[in-house]
Structures are given as structure tokens and as C-alpha cells.
Specification:
Two copies of one chain form a homodimer. By secondary structure, chain A is mostly helical. Helix content of chain A is 66%, strand content 3%. At the A-B interface, helix 3, helix 5 and helix 8 of A face helix 3, helix 5 and helix 8 of B. The structure holds a DNA duplex.
Chain lengths: 256, 256
DNA sequence: CTTTCTCTAATCGTATGACTTTATCGCAGG
DNA sequence: CCTGCGATAAAGTCATACGATTAGAGAAAG
């Protein structure tokens, strides 16, 4: 049982039949149960799980094709695509990753990306934010403070905090990466539930980011956001049970 | 007539019927001919263009749903989604943008994203590159030098150059942004075909990035890549016929 | 024995029509 | 004015049939 459906609501309806099939197949591919070989558990094993018509099945496959997870060719069949082709930043693909087992390398990759992107987003937010943006970020921050750690509302507020900053940056392309950030946050929550200390410690850091944005100090906002990301990575990887010397060095470098 | 199908081959087959329908609808939505209101030109106007069955139409819609362009609800109909929901970084969505009229704000957004991301990618590439990576980047660079400017092979080589650098960075999530970079490059090509001077001038800059990566100098590679991006933005926006004072200031800041 | 060609068969793609589910809207009743 | 219930429109699902494409086997040629 996992957290799901936060961030922006994925248009791919999950209580629709084809959506369930898509999810089932996607998780099977992402988790590696289906390699880059033949997909389609013979189209009949599917019928075993849930009795679905060819229509529903095909529409599910179309969704997966659109996200790069599978490739269908006339005679050879529908195959699971190699990982390089997956749209890893697609919100659905990211959320399906949460259903599979944690893939440490991928989580690191996501955090690394976030480390490059989110400080820049914070800088832009500081430069471009409107009063409404501030209100939105503040509201999210209050949601984080006023609710118990790791409650659903709290997590939602955390996601909203980061998303609001992206929104304030006024860059549509950049904003699409908010779902990737949301994914890293959810990984954190999944992995370190119970470690309330780390969460509480991060609260002031969030506030500092907020004040930097309010004061329109781009460099400061970026630096503080970088610190936030690094800390998050460290505690997350710690929960994952691995050493992270390199990341710790990086923090010093980025926050100066 | 536009450049198309570079970068990684999109799995969404264009000579398949549902693919054509998807593209047609997507371009209509992206170009703004269909607003965030009712989609579905009544399912019959489509039959006017190309006579398509409900099956093909529905599968096309599923693809668009998967990419966030439309939302279908039982009673109210299938509507074009608001832009915030689009997966702007999806390779197909990006390439569909190339079919629509240039949207200056979006092009700027893409370049801005690229400015944040690609230097970091270059830095990682310098730190992590293998001999094979170098060979791939070099081969692409040679393709750029040895062919006439703006020829198809040349453009392809340019895209390959940048993509190879992303590959060398060894970060799957980051690599997904290569298609966004490819999109900006294609916009450049579309807008400033004929300006051979700008292209020829950029060649040494590419070579400098390459040598920095060869020498494993991360900071240098990042700085040089940043310069490349800014130059590209400037000449591109110039062709678009607008002033770009702010971007020029940025260059000084980033290359230091 | 190797190469090339053709032809088959498996699989995806497309077409149709009927039926089910969902949720909106309007009317009737409280 | 509010409440609820049923008509209704649109998407969703199912079943079936046929067409298009091509991998791969087997035949024919060298």
C-alpha cells in the first residue's frame, strides 16, 4: 500500500478499466518482471486476472506506447521497450515507479536532477513571484507546520510548497519537472516514515526558502533550496541504508 | 514543411491511422485552434477529413489523454485540457509544437530550462564519461564540421552531439530532457536557416566543450556549454525578431 | 552449401454495432 | 428553495470480423 495520486491529478483515470490494465502492465515492466522482450502475457493471462476485452487491452497498450514503455509492431508483437525510451519524467510513469520496488540508482538520478533544477526554479521564483504566488507558498508552508508529520495533509502540503515555487517561476517547461520533484518527495516519505526528527528539522529550512523568495533574493533562495534538496537526499539515502559520502561533499559546494 | 522525427524515434507511429489523427488533433490543440473547451469536432468532422472509425479515433484520444492534452469524462465529453496539464516535455508533444506556429514565450522557456540543465549535464559528462562516450561525441562533432550548414545530416549531427553529452552524464532522468534540448535546436534551425555565419561561429564552441569533457574538466565544460546555450538563444530570438537584452546580460553572468 | 526469393501465418490495425456505465440536467415532489 | 429521482448524452466496454504488415520458414536458384 503506497501513497498515490498526489501532485497534479493524472488524467489517466484509474478506476477506468483500461487504466487498471495500463497500470498493471506498467508496473510489471518497470519492476522488471517483464524485460525488454516479448510483452503481452499472451493476451489471455490478462483475461485470467481481469476479464477484459480486446478494446480495453488495446487502449491500455496505446497509453503505454504514448509513454514509451512498449513498442508495438505488426508481426513481431508488442514488446516492452528498453529503459532509454521510457518517458521517465511523465507523471504517470513516475507514479508507477512508486508502485514498484525502490530503484536506488533511479532515486539518486531524480535527486540529482532536482538538485540542478529546483534551486534555479527558486531563483526565478524570487525574481518573478507575484503576491498571489507568495500567498500560495505561505499557505502550503502553514499546512506543513500545522499538521502532524507524515500525515496525508502534511505530505500534500509539502508537495504543494514545492509546486507553488515552480509555479511562481513562470516557466511552463520548468514546471513540468514539478512532478519529478514530487516523486522524490514521495520516495522520501515512503522510505523514512517515522523519522519525525528529520522532518521537523527541515521545517525552518523551508521557511528560510520562503523568506528569501519574499525578499526577492534570488541567489539566497537558490542556495537555501539547494541545501534543502541535499538534506533530503541524505536522509532519504540513509533510510535506504547506503553510504552517501559524495552527496555530503556536494552540499558544502552548493550552499557555499 | 518542417524538420521532423529527429532525436529518438517516437514510438507513436505516424503512418498508422490513429497516429495521424492524434497528430492532427494535437496540433489543433497546441496551436490554439481548439481552446480548453469542447474538443471532438463532433466526431463527424473528423470523418470529413479522413474517414476514420471510432476505434482509430478513440485510440488517438487515448494517446492524447496519456500526454495530458485532453480529458475525457463520461457525460460532459472530451475536452482539450488547460496548458498546465500538458506534458510539455514529452517528445511527441514537443515535436507537435514544431508543427504549430512558434510560440515565443514557450521557446524562451525551453531555452531557459536548457540553460539550467545542459551545463550541469556537461559537467557530469566530464566527470563520468567513458572512452565510448567520447567517441560518440567526437563522431557527432565531426558530422557537424564535415557537412554543409543546415543540411539534414548536419542538424542530425548537432542533435546527436548534445544527446551524446547527456548520455555520458549517466543519469536516466536527466537524459529525458535531451528531447527538450533537441526541440530548441530544431526551433533554431527552423527560424534561422540561411544564417550560416552564426552556425559556423558556433563550431569552435562545440569543439571547446568537447575538449573540456575529454580533459575531465567539469567546471570548464559547464561554463562553455552555458555559453553555447546563451549564444544559441540570442541568435534564435534575433531571428524571431525580438530584442533580448536580458539574455545577453545572462551570458556574462554564466560564463564569467 | 549459401544466397535469394516467395509465400504463409501470426499479429497488430481498423471497422462496426450493440450494450453498459457514468454523471449531468431538468423535472417533480417535498 | 431544497431534495431527489429519473431521463439522457457521452464515454467506456464488449464482441466480431476483416485488412495490412512483416518475421520467418521453406522453396528455388546459384
Amino acid at each position: 500500500m503506497r501513497i498515490r495520486d498526489f501532485s497534479r491529478p493524472t488524467t489517466l483515470n484509474e478506476d477506468r478499466l483500461f487504466g487498471q490494465v495500463a497500470q498493471k502492465l506498467a508496473v510489471a515492466i518497470i519492476s522488471g518482471r517483464i524485460h525488454a522482450g516479448e510483452l503481452l502475457p499472451n493476451e489471455d493471462d490478462l483475461r485470467a486476472d481481469i476479464s477484459v476485452s480486446r478494446t480495453a487491452y488495446r487502449e491500455a497498450v496505446k497509453v503505454l506506447t504514448a509513454k514509451g514503455l512498449v513498442e508495438a509492431r505488426p508481426r513481431s508483437g508488442t514488446r516492452a521497450a528498453p529503459r532509454e525510451r521510457w518517458n521517465l519524467l511523465d507523471p504517470d510513469v513516475l507514479s508507477w515507479h512508486l508502485e514498484a520496488d525502490p530503484n536506488e540508482k533511479f532515486i539518486r538520478d531524480l535527486f540529482e536532477l532536482r538538485r540542478f533544477v529546483e534551486p534555479s526554479a527558486a531563483r526565478l521564483a524570487a525574481q518573478r513571484r507575484s503576491a498571489a504566488d507568495i500567498a500560495r507558498i505561505e499557505a502550503a508552508y502553514r499546512g506543513m507546520v500545522e499538521n502532524p508529520p507524515y500525515a496525508e495533509v502534511t505530505i500534500r502540503a509539502d508537495l504543494a510548497f514545492h509546486e507553488a515555487i515552480f509555479a511562481a517561476a513562470q516557466n511552463a517547461a520548468l514546471q513540468c519537472l514539478a512532478s519529478a520533484v514530487a516523486a522524490t518527495l514521495q520516495w522520501s516519505m515512503l522510505l523514512k516514515t517515522g523519522d519525525e526528527a528529520a522532518y521537523v528539522e527541515s521545517l525552518p529550512d523551508h521557511e528560510h526558502v520562503l523568506t528569501a523568495i519574499v525578499e526577492r533574493d534570488g541567489d539566497l533562495a537558490a542556495a537555501r533550496m539547494a541545501g534543502l534538496v541535499i538534506d533530503s537526499l541524505n536522509t532519504t539515502l540513509a533510510s535506504l541504508g547506503s553510504e552517501v559520502p559524495e552527496a555530503k561533499i556536494a552540499r558544502i559546494k552548493h550552499t557555499k
